[in-house]
Amino acid sequence: MAFEVELKARLSQPQEIEAKAASLGALKGETLKEDIYFRRQGDTAAVPADRFRLRREAGRSVVTFKQLVEAAGVEVNDEVEFGVDDAHAFFQFAHQFGFEPFVVKRKKSRVYRVERANVEFNEVDHLGHFIEIEILCDDEKLVPVARTEVARLYHNLGLTADDVEPRRYIELLQTAYPVRYRFVNDRSLDWPFIEE
């Protein structure tokens, strides 16, 4: 179990903010993350209570589910993750137990390490540019200090309260790219679902 302490903002000038992050820390790397979010079949809420994601990144597939602990300003989530060896089998499992894909998120990320925070510069398909500042804590007692560090770094990068994006990517994507997905039991497909 880990507690994810995070602040996300929409960027109008991503190069300028990234240059500041580069001056404060070091580039860890670049990655492409492809996420499929699942909900119970028939649930039409923008942010379903019962949801999880399957992420494919660097040849690995990882399932993640989060429970929001706090959201006043800096978001804190109780996060659980585990690896999946066969993503197609996991799709079959989810489908069999009444879950369906409802959002696809693709984001290209450049990640900097600034002190103990990961600072991600993301370009999200259909949405644009964002920054996420995140610290993971193994113990809930460490969350208040991490919240302060995330907020301080956010301010040091020149971001303001007006830049904060409080909505989840899944909400933004459903508005920007409203499509439905359907599971297809076909192992020849990269991801076993299609847009309807």
Short description:
The protein is of the alpha+beta class. The protein contains 4 helices and 10 strands.
3D architecture notes:
- There is one protein chain.
- The chain has 196 residues and is α+β, with helices and mostly antiparallel strands.
- It has a single domain, classed as Hypothetical Protein Pfu-838710-001 (Beta Barrel).
- It contains four helices and ten strands; from the N terminus they run E-H-E-E-E-E-H-E-E-E-H-H-E-E.
- The strands form two sheets. Strands 1-5-4-3-2-6-7-8 form an eight-stranded antiparallel beta barrel, surrounded by four helices.
- A hairpin with a 2-residue loop joins strand 3 and strand 4.
- Taking all Cα atoms into account, the compactness measure Rg is 17 Å
Please give the largest β-sheet.
8 strands, antiparallel, barrel
Report the CATH architecture. Beta Barrel
Percent in helix: 10-25%
Provide the number of structural domains: 1
Report the β-strand fraction as a percent range: over 45%
Count of alpha/pi helices: 4
- Give a count of the beta strands, DSSP E runs of length 2 or more: 10
CATH topology: Hypothetical Protein Pfu-838710-001
Oligomer: single chain
- Sum up the overall morphology in one term: globular
CATH class: Mainly Beta
Structural class: alpha+beta
Determine the mean pLDDT: 92
Encode the helix/strand succession as letters: EHEEEEHEEEHHEE
Q: Strands across the major sheet, in which order?
A: 1-5-4-3-2-6-7-8
Sequence stretches where pLDDT stays below 50 over 5 or more residues: none
Would you identify the CATH H-level superfamily?
A: Hypothetical Protein Pfu-838710-001
